[in-house]
Write a structure and sequence with these properties.
CATH class of the largest domain: Alpha Beta
CATH architecture of the largest domain: 3-Layer(aba) Sandwich
Number of strands: 8
CATH topology of the largest domain: Rossmann fold
Helix content: 25-40%
Largest sheet: 6 strands, mixed
Structural class: alpha/beta
Shape: elongated
Length: 152
């Protein structure tokens, strides 16, 4: 692609396929099938999966829906990631490492292992250190989940 971002993503994808081929010798096949009678990558992937009696693993919402309607089993990576995220509830105590300042005065930011951001009120003085915090609320956004907490 002439688009640098798409090219970088493509390279990353190829690197991941190469790593999988090494890790799972003989179990990862790369096929060069094309279906000239079909337009669009999604339709071609669904046909390939049906012919190979294979499942599809994707993070693409539309491909997930199209494949499901056509009877192809789909594992949605986003749903999997959400399913294994730890459940956090208001009042729960956590030990977090505060890494940077938040947007508002006195705030600090920490992250869970899964990348979930934790905004900590009155945590700025502890940046660069671990702190025990108490969860005050959890907000689900289109970009993911955010946890709000205060220092104990």
């Amino acid at each position: 692609s002439s688009d640098n971002m798409k090219r970088a993503k493509g390279r990353r994808g190829l690197d991941l396929v190469h790593d999988l081929q090494i890790s799972y010798k003989g179990r990862i096949l790369v096929v060069d099938n094309d279906y000239d009678d079909l337009e669009g990558v999604d339709a071609k992937l669904v046909r390939l999966a049906r012919q190979a009696n294979a499942d599809i693993i994707t993070n693409d919402y539309n491909l997930n829906k199209v494949a499901g309607i056509q009877g192809v089993k789909v594992l949605n990576i986003n749903e999997l990631a959400n399913a294994i995220k730890p459940v956090v509830v208001a009042g729960e105590e956590m030990n977090v490492f505060l890494v940077k300042e938040g947007k508002e005065q006195g705030q600090a930011v920490a992250y869970l292992d899964d990348g979930t951001m934790i905004v900590v009120e009155n945590g700025r003085h502890s940046i660069g250190h671990s702190a025990i915090v108490v969860v005050t609320s959890v907000l689900q956004t289109s970009a993911g989940r955010m946890i709000f907490a205060k220092t104990k």
